[in-house]
């Protein structure tokens, strides 16, 4: 019963919970890192077992299934997390709303599956779309249990659930690909991965948090929760256009094989990035909400978080910009050379991830859902414009258009929203970026040195050298720069009881 009291209690929790939540936060980070490693290991395996066209087929369907998945959540997860007080009836109402949305959206996706096949001129997409519709039902039944676990800072349970789901899902996909290699149905390996993960996540979540909701009962508070969720859904819709419009345009214009080159590049960069950032933001959302009414401490923690993201994520992007060739060759094998320039441009766009992450997290923690929606309405169309401009030049042109419009258009918007809407310490962000420039120069020079001195060596050896140097640079910088000495410091600080 103690766990349930924590989950449903007011957002200010006793000081005694700190040690338990710190341990849980570290566990979810470790489990997500293990999940990323497992997924990265399956990338070269699946790439060699399957055809380029297979990845393009799944990417085509993902455009529509990702769109539908937004409405299953409908922002209700964050509505619970950021709420200062929540009771069992409110949570139960949101559970039934999520479950109903999952079922309705699954039916809509099944009915629309022939249109997906018609749009691309590919009959196999009908069955793929229908199969993936089952994930919406499972997600609808899981969302509120996951949200309550995160609200109660039960990150250890969340992390273990994700690890089990990822491991079983990836294993199932690889097993199918190996068993049906070179057969006409081998692409079902990529379909089974998300389906298996959704089912395992549902079962594991209920084992971790066996909460049974009560029957739906109309109460006034439900409307406000749904309203906040609607604003977040609107923002995610704009994000969807950015995240999936490129897939749709390339698949429609160039076909599934060319889309496969783009999808693999996007996968190698964004998948581990998202999997590592998800637990980080899951910790930040409820934790920052606890200190949103203390602007001084809020900005202090936000500055530390930006510094952490800047000094850890950007070096990884620089490593891929310089060494995209050996990484693509090592992970994908021969025949994937067209993915190399795509990966470089996507890595250029990835250097803006720290600002993008903070903008969404800060506005969510402050309860400014409407302002977050406005940010999406203004910023995301610039990415779509970049896709359209670069589309005639193939997947490389699409990635380049996304990166260039990111710096020309979206970067100034991030700065404006953070400064004037979120009241974030933008000047400190700029100073941190300027101070880090010599550090970034060392990372770039070191990666170029790996390429120069290891000419003729196997691509795997060059990629390993670049990865090792970049990791050592991050560790060395963490030891030299005081604010980044402890990489968990922002999370640990957030879990302290706010001062009065």
Question: How would you describe this structure in keywords?
Answer:
single chain; disordered C terminus; 500 residues; disordered N terminus; mainly alpha
Describe this structure in words.
The protein has 500 residues and is mostly helical. 82% of the residues lie in helices and 0% in strands. Helix 3 (52-73) packs antiparallel against helix 10 (220-254), helix 7 (134-151) runs parallel beside helix 9 (188-208) and helix 14 (353-365) crosses helix 16 (394-421). It is globular. It starts with a helix and ends in a 6-residue tail after the last helix. The model is unreliable at 1-5, 10-19, 484-488 and 494-500 (pLDDT under 50).
Characterize this entry briefly.
By secondary structure, the protein is an all-alpha fold. It has helices at 2-8, 18-49, 52-73, 76-81, 88-120, 125-132, 134-151, 155-179, 188-208, 220-254, 256-289, 295-332, 339-350, 353-365, 369-390, 394-421, 426-453, 459-480, 489-494.
The ordered string of helix (H) and strand (E) elements is: HHHHHHHHHHHHHHHHHHH
How many DSSP H or I helices? 19
Overall 3D form: globular
Helix content bin: over 70%
Specify the structural class: mainly alpha
| Radius of gyration, taken over Cα atoms and rounded to an integer in Å | 22 Å
Main sheet properties: none
- Which band does the percent of strand residues land in? under 5%
pLDDT below 50 for ≥5 consecutive residues: which ranges? Answer: 1-5, 10-19, 484-488, 494-500
How many strand units?
A: 0
Amino-to-carboxy terminus distance: 29 Å
- Compute the average pLDDT: 79
